[in-house]
Every structure is written in C-alpha cells, then in structure tokens.
Amino acid sequence: MTTLTVNGQDVTIESEDDIPLLWVIRDELNLTGTKFGCGIAQCGACTVMVDGMPRRSCVTPVGSVDGSDIQTIEAMDSPEAKAVQAAWEKLDVPQCGWCQSGQVVSAAALLQMTRQPTDEDIDNAMAGNVCRCATYVRIRKAIHDAAAALEG
Amino acid sequence: MRFLIALMLMVTPAVAETVNGLKTVDEFDGIAEEEARSVALFEEMLKVIEHPRCLNCHPAGDTPLQGDEMQPHMPPVIRGEADFGAPGMYCTTCHGSENVAFVTGEGSIPGHSPWQLAPVEMAWVGKSPAEICAQIKDPERNGGKDLAALHEHMAEDGLVGWGWEPGEGRTPAPGTQEILGELTQSWIDTGAMCPDA
User: Fold this and answer.
1) What is the pLDDT of residues A33-84, one digit of tens each?
2) Is residue A62 domain-shared with residue A106, that is, in the same domain?
3) Which of A1, A20, A50, A64 could join A55 via S-S bond, C-beta 3.0 to 4.6 A?
C-alpha cells in the first residue's frame, strides 16, 4: 500500500509496489493527461513532478515514491507552468499533441530552475522529451517566450 | 574408494581460483618479487576498472556511456556542473534508487542512490593502465583519497558495488566487490606499484 499526494489530494494506492506510477496515475486515478509513450524512459511523454522535480513515471515503481507529492499536467499551475501554457497556445506548439503534456511539465520545471535559459540550456533540459511531429523549433521558441513573459 | 576421494580432498591445499573472470589474491602468491606481484595485482584490478560497468560512468568527455557496447547515453544527456546532469534533466529524472525492470519488455533501467558520473578528473576511458594507475593514486585526481580511502572506495562503495548487480540487460563486472577489495588491499600492501605502460 502506498500513500501519495496527487495534485493536492491525499490518495492511498492498493496496487503492488512495483506497478509504475504512470499506471496508477492513468488507470487508478483516471488522470489521463499524462501519456504512455515508450515505457523505457526514452521519450518523456510520461513526465510528472515528484516532490518538485521532473520524473519519468513509466520507470518509477509507485512504492519507490511512497509519501511523495505528485503533480500531473492537470494541476500544473505555477507561474512558470502558466507562462509555458500561454506560450504554447500563442505559438500553437502542438501538432498531434501526444508528447505535449510531458513537454509542458519539463519546460515548466526548467524555468523553475533556470529563469532565462539559453538555447543550450533548453536543448539540455528537453533532450529527453521526444516529439514525433518534430515541433522542436516551436517548443524552444515557446520556452523563450514564456521566459520573457515571466521576466515581465 | 569414496574414503580415498574424501581424503584427497582434505589433504589438497587451498587452491587459488578465478571467480567470474577475476583471479583471487592467492593466484599471485607464486610471484616472488614484490614489485612484480604488485603490478600483476593492479593489472587484475584493471579487469574491473576497465569493464563497461565502471568505464561507462568514468567517461573522458561530458557524455556518459551505456550498455555493454559502451554507446553514448540515450537520451543524450550531459555531465552538468555537479556531474549529475543538466538543470531540468538531472540523472534522477529517470534513474531511481534501484534498478527497475521494464514492465513492457526485456531489460531494465539502472538505479542506485546516489547515481552520478565520476568527476572528469577521474576519467578512465582512453587511458593506458599506467595512466589510470597514476591517476587513482593521485589525491588531486581521485577525490582527495589516500590509499586506505581508495581501498574503501573499491571494497565498500555502494555505487561501485552496483557494478556486480547491474540489472537485467547488463553484464556484471568480473569477480565480486569483495575480491576487488582484497586485490586492492594486496596491491597497496605490496607498494601500490604501477605498470610501465
């Protein structure tokens, strides 16, 4: 049994400890904004925040994060996340959209750590978030746009 | 007959052995000259030091390697200022405190706490045995370790120990961490000599 805080709500998970956090988020908590992409931490579609840091939920056994604070795309409401989401809409970043919740979580996490990232900072932080539609140019531009908006 | 075999086993002296591709310290007793024995012990330690489980996280550049084929890490990650990845993409974005088997197929993602690269001054990839030997004895390039601390690193460190429990899809380092520790201690006891090349 695992106890978590997910998007501000305390939840008790009855699944086995080795079930991936992603399975719990999507199938038990019905929070389907977080996507399954590869299952082996190669694509980033399943990225969520665990205790304030980005984490690939497909390779995270739920028992390993017992007691943690989990935030999924549904509840990303920090100033950085809001700026990222506004920039995403403004620049029409998504194409098919499958990877985008992971992209948004990673981008917001980057801006929490690096307020004015360079292209290199963005490339390094986002290297694990793959986009099959290759929207990388718009993603990078939108992160710069969000950084500028945060600078105000 | 059975009695004879049992008797023969009892009187046979303890034999040196090779465990999982790594010779035990006893194997080197036949080398009379201490300096030569020390060098031979180090060359045995090198079988572990130069194994992919160790080299992959002692890279010469800013990119870790991975797998038995020592390919560049995928996704493409960087060393970062603290040998722990880039802000937003630290090692812990993917690597947890223990190996995790993939639930969707074969293989696993490695994990241990801590999980990070060796600092670049401890890089081993591309170095000769003599260079590695000089480097691991040099406190300026080994994290300030004296020989006792170096032995402790080899014999006790948890992340070093991960090399023998690397998870599905990765070949363990030769021998055991205990044998590596014994080899290291004997190497130190014989003067911690280095090979010429």
Assistant:
1) 999 999 999 999 999 999 999 999 999 999 999 999 999 999 999 999 999 9
2) no
3) A50
Query: Cα–Cα–Cα angle for B88, B70, B154, nearest 5°?
Result: 85
- Identify the H or E element spanning B121: none
Collect all residues from B whose CB is shorter than 8 A from any CB in A. Answer: 74-78, 80, 86-90, 92-94, 96-98, 100, 102-105, 107, 109
**How confident is the model over B89-104, as pLDDT tens digits?**
999 999 999 999 999 9
Question: Pick from A92, A10, A22, A6: which is nearest to A58 by CA?
Answer: A22
Total tally of structural domains belonging to chain A: 2
CATH label of the domain that carries residue A23:
3.10.20.30
Rounded to whole angstroms, the Cα distance separating A109 from B77 reads 16
- Same domain? A69 vs A113: no
ipTM over 0.90: yes
Relative to beta strand A69-71, strand A2-6 is: parallel
Locate all alpha helices (DSSP H) within A42-118, ordered by sequence.
79-90, 100-113
* Interatomic CA distance for residues B35 and B146, integer angstroms: 20
**Is the Cβ of A42 closer than 8 Å to some Cβ of chain B?**
yes
Angle in degrees, CA B94, B96, B101, rounded to 5: 85
The pTM assigned to this predicted structure is 0.92
Please state, in angstroms and as integers, the Cα–Cα distance from residue A56 to each residue in A41, A134, B42, B146, following that order: 6, 20, 40, 39
**CATH number reported for the structural domain that contains residue A100 in this entry:** 1.10.150.120
Give the residue numbers spanning the domain of A52: 2-75
Q: How far is B142 from chain A (nearest CA, A)?
A: 28
Q: How far does Cα B143 stand from its chain's mean position? A: 16
